[in-house]
Design goal:
Elements (H helix, E strand, L loop, with lengths): L12 E4 L33 H7 L2 H7 L3 E4 L12 H10 L3 E6 L6 H12 L5 E6 L5 H7 L5 H13 L4 E6 L8 H11 L3 E5 L23 E8 L5 E8 L1 H12 L5 E2 L6 H5 L3 E2 L5 E2 L2 H11 L32 H5 L2 H9 L4 E2 L3 H8 L10 E2 L7
Parallel strand pairs: 1-2, 1-10, 2-3, 3-4, 4-5, 5-6
Antiparallel strand pairs: 6-13, 7-8, 9-12, 10-11
The structure holds iron/sulfur cluster (2 copies).
């Protein structure tokens, strides 16, 4: 199996967390604290600077790595909140780099979205913006997407699409919105979205089978989660969401993971397949967003408001939260040569004892891959 990162070869794509700030307060998001309802302890309210992005992803880096795609998303923030999002997109688009952006769509005004659509349409690159819209009316959508505005999202998405941008409607299925799936699909088509994606999260389960995606049967057993969510301005909203069998399944698998776990197969590493790496809003580099999340939990393990603790095992590679792994201080090539990445790679080989939790759970057990087939709509550019 090829190494995670070779000695001199640079990855051809990246996942950047432009910011850990967000206008929304989705209850199950990693940025939302279940303990307080506000921002979690992981959130530092920082933006990855335009200047460092231009420096690290300079023309020379793009040429040497044959860099072709950047995904703007992250663990704790919405990229559209970054004050220089347009300039960052412009930097990559004018360099011939394709872009994928994930957003709640409820930030900025239609004229900004029109500019963004015009910019992306003017370049011969693959690009797509995924809007998270979990309903066909404000009340249903905001049941989960707290502090966002359904009408505003549609206005923004339409301004973007009319200007030539390629958009995808992503619909996370919950008990409270599954009756709106067909209507949402129709709306996506009539509004010019290129595609519609149904997503069933690993902690959420609809009550009935919703597509021929090979889903397992669903029981009526459910977990209830309720809390009060609080945004930056101190506004508070209650929520209550039923969680189903996938939570139970994830919990069961989590209990199987122990310091004696041995994986006999190769772990199919997603970032190896994608030839990618992850940069956090603070500038720290990891293989992927899942490892970044895991190490952030380890970093804050003793904080009283960290509900989901991560397991240190004897084989867990140590991560130096230091200049040596941060793009503000080192080049990407220098960082990827650090022993941490080689250590992670070793744990992906067959027969290794205790791969780190995200590798075991996300890529080995495949717990997060219950994404139902998409339907293409219209004949817009592929993204
Ligand atoms: S919009 Fe995205 S980043 Fe913001 S709270 Fe929701 S899931 Fe988290
Ligand atoms: S979780 Fe582990 S195996 Fe999966 S993409 Fe990240 S580094 Fe690779």
């Amino acid at each position: 199996m090829a190494a995670l990162y070779g000695d001199s070869r640079l990855p051809s794509s990246a996942h950047l967390e432009l910011t850990d700030r967000c206008n929304a307060g989705c209850p199950l998001c990693s940025r939302t604290s279940r303990a307080t309802g506000g921002a979690s302890v992981f959130v530092k309210n920082v933006d990855l600077s335009l200047e460092i992005i231009r420096r690290r992803f300079c023309a020379e880096f793009i040429r040497r790595s044959q860099f072709k795609y950047v995904h703007l998303c992250g663990n704790y923030g919405d990229p559209l909140v970054h004050p220089q999002l347009f300039e960052i997109v412009e930097h990559f688009a004018t360099s011939g780099v394709g872009l994928g952006i994930a957003t709640n769509g409820s930030v900025r005004k239609p004229r900004f979205w029109k500019r963004l659509g015009t910019l992306l349409a003017a370049h011969d690159i693959k690009s797509k913006i995924t809007f998270g819209i979990d309903g066909v009316d404000h009340q249903t959508h905001e049941t989960y997407r707290k502090f966002t505005h359904f009408e505003k999202i549609l206005e923004n998405a339409q301004a973007f699409i009319r200007a030539g941008g390629v958009a995808r409607w992503q619909f996370i299925v919950f008990d409270h919105n599954e009756h709106q799936i067909d209507r949402a699909r129709e709306m996506a088509a009539s509004l010019g979205f290129q595609s519609f994606k149904l997503q069933v999260g690993n902690r959420i389960r609809p009550k009935k089978q919703i597509a021929s995606g090979g889903d397992e049967a669903v029981s009526d057993k459910g977990y209830g989660v309720s809390a009060t969510i609080q945004d930056r301005k101190g506004r508070r909203m209650d929520y209550g969401i039923r969680l189903g069998d996938r939570l139970a399944e994830a919990t069961r698998k989590a209990h199987q993971y122990s310091p004696d776990t041995i994986v006999e197969d190769v772990i199919p590493c997603k970032v190896k397949a994608e030839d990618s790496f992850f940069v956090s809003a603070e500038g720290f580099v990891f293989p992927c967003c899942w490892t970044a999340l895991h190490y952030n939990r380890l970093r804050h393990a003793h904080h009283p408001n960290v509900e989901e603790t991560a397991l240190w095992t004897a084989t867990t590679p140590r991560y130096a939260w230091s200049e040596g792994t941060n793009v503000y201080h080192r080049t990407i090539g220098e960082i990827l040569k650090s022993g941490f990445f080689a250590d992670i790679d070793r744990l992906l080989q067959p027969g290794r004892k205790v791969p780190i939790w995200p590798c075991y759970k996300t890529c080995y057990l495949n717990a997060n891959k219950n994404v139902l087939p998409q339907r293409q709509q219209g004949s817009a550019r592929a993204g």
